[in-house]
């Protein structure tokens, strides 16, 4: 048993560099272990009558007519063909013929490393690909790369999912108003180009929670990643360092603004290092700012539809707040009782000591 384990473990160690190497190639989607060759095959190689790409077989490729296409200005690295089909990164581009396809190089500026880069579209009259990812229907005359993860045309906004090697159209996203995060104009508020139906553009502002810009609010409601969050008080909703909170609770800014703790618990945490007043000042400032902007205005928070999942979530939220406050009240009562008992015991003990001392002094005088 031990010998079998050592043999399997050794084989895994030997093959690790090949797996890692193959994963680095653009467009690689992987193959199962039984298809893998133990030969060190870099790039495209014909081995034992089969075509391989970094050790992984290129399915449906004809080894007799297969050849790699050299990279050129309009041709990306990783292209290959046989007499009938076109390939990128070891993957067959269904529908594209090697004698009739065209390419389009689209340049863009990548602010993450301050460099000019490009992406390649491969197409014919019926099919469109971004490398080996199908993007049928994209308008290549108006296509614009936003960054390495997004692009758009005159009709749609698209997100590139490299993990699953697919391109997804963002539903209802307006390319004219697409920007990262929130885009506020005179008529509407957008999240990644998707209109937020209930948001008020005149009062909308981004609230930087946890050093990000995924949370916002208007005079009525609070929003997380473009979705309305029921139950959070927009008037008092504010941020402090990595926390966002309102008059009731502290919220998890990475998980749909679910309640993390009550506001009292946050204050108690800051009280430990003498900064509890900072929470009060921040909250008070948020409320005063709101009241200055919207005097004599009563917020009209959106309510979820009856019996909807949103209503159930709101009821749970309100129950969680009530439960947390009740637990805190009970804990405070217990603490007060403990302090009271300690005080009584201390008083009785001190009284006993005083009585003993006075009695001893009285004896001395006699």
Description:
The chain has 366 residues and is α+β, with helices and mostly antiparallel strands. Among the domains are: 59-170, no CATH class; 179-302, no CATH class. The chain has four helices and 26 strands. It has helices spanning 2-24, 263-271, 276-293, 309-365, and strands at residues 44-47, 50-53, 56-57, 67-68, 79-81, 86-88, 91-92, 102-110, 115-123, 128-130, 133-134, 144-147, 150-152, 157-161, 166-169, 182-184, 189-191, 194-195, 205-209, 212-217, 222-224, 227-229, 238-240, 243-245, 249-252, 258-262. It has a four-stranded antiparallel sheet with strand order 4-5-6-7, with no helix packed on it. A four-stranded antiparallel sheet has the order 8-9-10-11, with no helix packed on it. A hairpin with a 2-residue loop joins β2 (50-53) and β3. α2 crosses α3. The chain is elongated, with a radius of gyration of 33 Å. It starts with a helix and ends with a helix.
Pattern of helices and strands:
HEEEEEEEEEEEEEEEEEEEEEEEEEEHHH
What is the typical, i.e. mean, pLDDT?
A: 83
Oligomer: single chain
How many H/I helical runs?
Answer: 4
Q: Which structural class should the secondary elements be placed in?
A: alpha+beta
- Main β sheet profile: 4 strands, antiparallel
How do the strands of the widest beta sheet line up side by side?
Answer: 4-5-6-7
**What is the first-to-last residue Cα distance?**
93 Å
Uncertain runs are: 1-29
> Considering DSSP H and I runs of 4 or more, what fraction of the residues is helical?
25-40%
Shape type:
elongated
Tell me the β content. 25-35%
Q: Measured on Cα atoms, how large is the radius of gyration?
A: 33 Å
- Let me know the number of strands: 26
